[in-house]
């Protein structure tokens, strides 16, 4: 069994590759909910939705979020009434938010409603939120402290980041399925997808007890670097690393995760960094990590799992 931690476009793409090559009961994908928020009365879970639409084959590839073939009648009508339109909700996407909001208000957990929606979307593998308790990523920047979506969408990641805080994480509990996967004796490996380490992976690790449980797992923990040749494929990961005084390379990613991981997959363009990364005690595997198609996603997923297997064999010697 493989446990994958994911969020955002990069995480969704690798999760999709893993889902395509593994049987449904062989994969658990845990998704960041630190960017969840309430907007226009709806409970919005952007990372869960990005993963859901991607694994269901309904994602808008051009935008990187939302549903393919989306229409915007609701937003146009809202704008005509003078409503807030900085966070765009498509007509089809709106149905997801309505269903989630209704279920949560009727007492269902986020895990329960998520499982039901993924089943309706005919996604084979198990996808769960990191927690059923609220955790909110807050961005401390040169404009003060901004809620994540205010920073990410409304301000387009323009403010200079000084620190990140995960409000509620210390009192949040990992979702039941997440905890079960971490404690499963049959767990073969953990994959940290090429998601933004600050905005998608760190919120998951910040949930009370998660990092401690992760360190107790005997299976290898492998991360896939989201940085290629000093830049992020998508999103503000490189910008945030620079603003926090970190080295914007795969070596910087290795130092960020430190001894939490056993291995790091890096892009062929960064092969020259392999020796320096290995000097930190982290094993390295080099391949093409850009995922432009389903085939690329499955290829990287296969490569990553082979790396996990190799590390597992080395650990058992």
Structural class: alpha/beta
> CATH class, anyone?
Alpha Beta
Number of strands: 14
Total domain count: 1
String of helices and strands:
EHEEEHHHHEEEHEHEHHEEEHHEHEH
Regions with pLDDT < 50 over 5+ consecutive residues?
none
Number of helices: 13
Radius of gyration: 19 Å
Give the amount of beta strand, in percent.
15-25%
Biggest β-sheet: strands ordered side by side in the sheet: 5-2-1-9-10-13-14
The CATH superfamily is CofD-like domains
Quick structural overview:
This protein has 317 residues and is α/β, with parallel strands linked by helices.
Structure description:
The chain is α/β, with parallel strands linked by helices. It has one domain: Rossmann fold, CATH 3.40.50. The chain is built from 13 helices and 14 strands. The strands form 4 sheets. A 7-stranded parallel β-sheet has the order 5-2-1-9-10-13-14, with helices on both faces. Strands 7-6-8 form a 3-stranded antiparallel β-sheet. The chain has a two-stranded antiparallel ribbon with strand order 3-4. Strand 3 and strand 4 (42-44) form a beta hairpin. The chain is globular and about 65 Å long. It starts with a strand and ends with a helix.
């Amino acid at each position: 069994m493989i446990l994958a931690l994911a969020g955002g476009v990069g995480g969704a793409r690798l999760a999709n590759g893993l889902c395509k090559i593994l049987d449904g009961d062989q994969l658990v994908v845990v998704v960041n909910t630190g960017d969840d928020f309430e907007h226009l009365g709806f409970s919005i879970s952007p990372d869960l939705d990005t993963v859901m639409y991607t694994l269901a084959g309904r994602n808008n590839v051009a935008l990187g979020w939302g549903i393919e073939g989306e229409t915007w009648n609701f937003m146009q009508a809202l704008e005509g009434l003078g409503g807030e339109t900085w966070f765009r909700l498509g007509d089809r996407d709106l149905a997801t938010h309505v269903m989630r909001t209704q279920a949560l208000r009727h007492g269902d957990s986020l895990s329960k409603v998520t499982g039901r929606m993924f089943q309706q979307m005919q996604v084979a593998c198990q996808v769960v939120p990191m927690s059923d308790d609220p955790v909110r990523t807050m961005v401390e920047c040169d404009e003060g402290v901004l809620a994540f979506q205010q920073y990410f969408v409304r301000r387009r990641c323009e403010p200079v980041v000084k620190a990140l805080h995960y409000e509620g994480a210390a009192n949040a509990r990992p979702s039941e399925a997440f905890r079960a996967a971490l404690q499963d004796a049959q767990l073969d490996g953990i994959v940290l997808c090429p998601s933004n380490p600050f905005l998608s992976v760190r919120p998951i690790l910040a949930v009370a007890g998660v990092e401690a449980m992760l360190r107790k797992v005997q299976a290898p923990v492998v991360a896939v670097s989201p940085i290629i040749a000093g830049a992020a494929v998508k999103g503000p990961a490189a910008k945030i690393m620079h603003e926090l005084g970190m080295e914007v390379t795969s070596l910087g990613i290795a130092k960020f995760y430190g001894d939490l991981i056993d291995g790091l997959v890096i892009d062929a363009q960064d092969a020259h960094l392999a020796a320096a990364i290995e000097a930190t005690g982290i094993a390295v595997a080099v391949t093409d990590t850009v995922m432009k198609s389903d085939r690329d996603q499955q290829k990287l997923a296969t490569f990553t799992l082979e790396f996990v297997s190799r590390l597992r064999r080395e650990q058992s010697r």
